[in-house]
Design brief:
Elements lengths: L5 E5 L6 H12 L2 E4 L5 H12 L7 H25 L4 E4 L2 H11 L4 H11 L7 E4 L4 H8 L12 H4 L1
Parallel strand pairs: 1-3, 1-4, 2-3
C-alpha cells in the first residue's frame, strides 16, 4: 500500500480555501478535513476559540487551544488516514497557527514551531497551498454573516 500524503490549504477567511480544499479532495478522492473543529473535542475548542465573545483569551492560551485541537485532529483523523494510505486535504494546519498566533498575536515563532512539532509528532504537510487574497477583499467575500472572534480583528492583524 502506498503512503498517504497530506496537503494543507491555507489562507484567511473568505479567501476561498475551503472551496479549493473541497474541490481538491474530491478530485483526489482524499479525506477532506479542517481545523479547528474536526473532532468532538475540536468542536468544543472551536467554540472557545471563535465563538466566545465574553471570554478574554490571552495569546498564549489561544495558541495552546489551537495546538490541542491540532493534536486531537492528527490523532483521530489525519494520522489514521495517512496510515491507511489515504491522501488527506486539510483546510488549515500549522501555517495558520504561525500566521494568526505568531505574526498576528506576536508570539515567538520558534516557540510556536516547537509546540506544533511536538503536538503532531513532527508531521508536516507534503504540500502547503496558500490562497492569497487581500484582507479587504476577503472580508467583502465573507458577506454579512456575523464574524467570529478572529474575523473581528482589524485589518493589520489579517495582513
Amino acid at each position: 500500500m502506498s503512503a498517504g500524503r497530506l496537503i494543507a490549504i491555507e489562507g484567511i477567511d473568505g479567501s476561498g480555501k475551503s472551496t479549493q480544499a473541497r474541490l481538491l479532495a474530491d478530485s483526489l478522492d482524499a479525506v477532506l478535513t479542517h481545523e479547528p473543529g474536526a473532532t468532538a473535542l475540536g468542536l468544543e475548542l472551536r467554540a472557545l476559540l471563535l465563538d466566545s465573545a465574553a471570554v478574554d483569551i490571552a495569546p498564549s492560551t489561544e495558541a495552546l487551544l489551537v495546538a490541542a485541537d491540532r493534536a486531537q485532529h492528527v490523532a483521530e483523523v489525519v494520522a489514521p488516514a495517512l496510515e491507511d494510505g489515504r491522501w488527506v486535504v486539510t483546510d488549515r494546519f500549522s501555517a495558520s497557527t504561525l500566521a494568526y498566533q505568531g505574526y498576528g498575536r506576536g508570539l515567538d515563532l520558534q516557540s510556536l514551531g516547537t509546540l506544533l512539532d511536538w503536538v503532531v509528532g513532527g508531521l508536516r504537510p507534503d504540500v502547503t497551498v496558500l490562497v492569497d487574497l487581500p484582507p479587504e477583499l476577503a472580508r467583502a467575500r465573507r458577506g454579512r454573516s456575523a464574524p467570529d472572534r478572529l474575523e473581528r480583528m482589524d485589518g493589520g492583524f489579517h495582513a
